[in-house]
Design a protein that fits this description.
Elements (H helix, E strand, L loop, with lengths): L28 E3 L5 E3 H9 L18 E2 L1 H13 L11 H17 L5
Keywords: Transferase, Ubl conjugation pathway
GO molecular function: ubiquitin protein ligase activity
Catalytic activity: S-ubiquitinyl-[E2 ubiquitin-conjugating enzyme]-L-cysteine + [acceptor protein]-L-lysine = [E2 ubiquitin-conjugating enzyme]-L-cysteine + N(6)-ubiquitinyl-[acceptor protein]-L-lysine
């Protein structure tokens, strides 16, 4: 199977494998109702920071709106195998990742609390 894909500016990872928030390859792609796909960790971080809209379209967005993009994940894995690069590391389960992200936001806010 011939895999011709538009690469990023550095000629590495195909641009549609890149998260629009981090501009890094996605590990666990999820798609918003807007049709935009993000890396789960990055969009969780965005929403945990208090944002309530899609960072690309500005339309309302919540964690419950996100759907795993299994097809894109398989394409990323296939591309990684084809080009002998290790597949992206598995992300934490969504509930663990969500808790970690929320704790990070709380801890960032705690630094401004009076002692």
């Amino acid at each position: 199977m011939e895999m011709e894909m538009e690469m990023d500016a550095a000629g590495g990872t195909p641009h549609h494998f890149m998260c629009p928030i981090s501009l890094q390859p996605m590990h666990d792609p999820v798609t918003a109702p807007t049709g935009i796909t993000y890396d789960r960790r990055e969009i969780n971080r965005w929403l945990a920071a208090g944002h309530t809209s899609c960072p690309v379209t500005g339309q309302p967005l919540s964690l419950a709106d996100l759907t795993p993009n299994h097809t894109l994940r398989r394409l990323i894995d296939t591309w990684s195998c084809h080009y002998s690069t290790p597949p992206p590391a598995a992300a934490l389960p969504p509930e663990v990742d969500d808790v970690v992200e929320r704790l990070m936001v709380v801890m960032e806010g705690a630094s401004s609390w009076p002692s």
